[in-house]
Amino acid sequence: MSGLAINALHAAHGRAPILQGVELTVPDGELACVLGPSGCGKSTLLRVIAGFHPAQRGQVTLGRTVLDDGRRRLPAERRRIGYVPQDGALFPHLTVAANIGFGLPRPQRRDRVAELLGLIGLPGLGERHPHQLSGGQQQRVALARALAPRPELLLLDEPFAALDATLRTDLRAEVAATLRAAGATAVLVTHDQDEALSFADTIAVMRAGRIVQQATPQDLYREPADTAVARFLGEANIVSAGIEGMRADTAFGILKLTVNAGAARRGPVLLRPRQLRLSVTPGPGKVRTRVHRCHFRGSDHRVELVAPETAGLPGLLVAYTDEAWPEGEAYVEADGPAHPVDDEPGGAVNSPS
C-alpha cells in the first residue's frame, strides 16, 4: 500500500490520553487535512507521524515502512518526512537559497534550490534574508525547504494561522497548487473550516482524540455523520423529521433525502442555510417566521429567522440570501435534499440572542 496509513493509534502526554484509536488513510499524492478544535489532539497526531512524539500502541505506516507501532520507533531523521511549523522557523542568518538548500548534498544544491524557487514563485530572491521577505514569502520558503530533500510525506502544522485573512486565502491556494505540481503527499492540521474545505482532497474531522469522519470536502459538507460534525463544517439548520427510505416529512413538507434512511423513525435532518428560501407570501411548504437579524457579508446576507414553537423547527433558522431582509414577517421554504444525521449529545441548539 502506498501513502500514509494509521491504525488504532494511541498516544498520551504523561498519564493523560490524547489520541484514542485514531484511524486515518492518506493515499499517495493526495492532500489531506485533519480538522478539529483546539485540544482535540491534531498537533499531537502530526508529531507522532513526524517522529517527535511516541505512540503507545497502534501503527503508523508510510508506504511499506512501519514508522511506529508502540514498540519499535523509526527515528525522525530516517522517516523521509518534511515538516512545516506554524512560524516557518527559517534560519535568520542564512539567505533564502541557503535555507532551502540546508542539509542537501552540495552537488545537488544549486539546481534543486533554483527549481524550488521557481516552484514557489520566488525566482531571483535566493540571496535575500528572511527579514527582507513578507510573511507569506517566508512561509513559501519554509515549504520549499521542507520539499527540498524530496520527502515521501509533508506535514503542515497550521502554517497559515499567523497571516491576515486575505494573505491566508491566497497563500493556501498557492501552496496547494505547489504541492500538487510537486506530486507531494501532505497532511495539514487546522481548526479553520474554510481552509480545510478549500485545501484538501480528503478531510478527517477529529474530536476528543478520535477521527469521527473522513471524506472528501464535498461529501463531508453535504453528508456529515452527526450534528456536531455538521455544525463544525459550517452553519447548519438541524430539523426534526419523520424519515423513511428516501423521504423526510418536515415542517417544510416532504423533502428528498441524500441517502436511504431505512425503516421509519423520527430523527434530525440537516439543511444548510443556502437551502432555505424566503418570500413575503404564504404558500404550500412555507413556514411563517420572523426576521430577527440580517447581516451584510459582502457576497450575501446572513438572515436569522425565529420560528414559532408550534412549527416543530429549531428556535433559530439561518438563511443566506442575495438580498437584504428587513425585520418582520417572512415565509420560509426549503429545497432538498436533506441529510439525516445522528444526534450528537451535547450539540448546540440554535436559539436567538
- Count of DSSP strands: 20
Largest sheet: 6 strands, mixed
Radius of gyration: 24 Å
Number of domains: 2
Give the DSSP E fraction (strand runs of 2 or more residues): 25-35%
In the CATH scheme, the class of the largest domain would be Alpha Beta
Mean pLDDT across residues: 90
Name the CATH homologous superfamily of the largest domain: P-loop containing nucleotide triphosphate hydrolases
Would you identify the regions where 5 or more consecutive residues have pLDDT less than 50? 345-353
CATH T-level fold name of the largest domain = Rossmann fold
Please state the overall shape, judged from the principal axes of the Cα atoms.
Answer: globular
Helix content: 10-25%
Strand order of the largest sheet: 6-7-8-3-9-10
CATH architecture of the largest domain: 3-Layer(aba) Sandwich
**Tally of DSSP helical segments:** 8
How far do the termini sit from each other? 51 Å
Q: What letter string, H or E per element, gives the SSE order?
A: EEEHEEEHHHEHEHEEHHEEEEEEEEEE
Structural class: alpha+beta
Briefly say what this structure is:
The protein is an alpha+beta fold and 353 residues long.
Question: How does this model look, in words?
Answer:
The protein has 353 residues and is of the alpha+beta class. The protein has two domains: 4-222, 3-Layer(aba) Sandwich (Rossmann fold); 238-340, OB fold (Dihydrolipoamide Acetyltransferase, E2P). The protein contains eight helices and 20 strands. The strands form four sheets. A six-stranded mixed beta sheet has the order 6-7-8-3-9-10, with helices on both faces. The longest helix is centred in the middle third of the chain and has 18 residues, at 165-182. The termini are far apart. Residues 345-353 have low confidence and may be disordered.
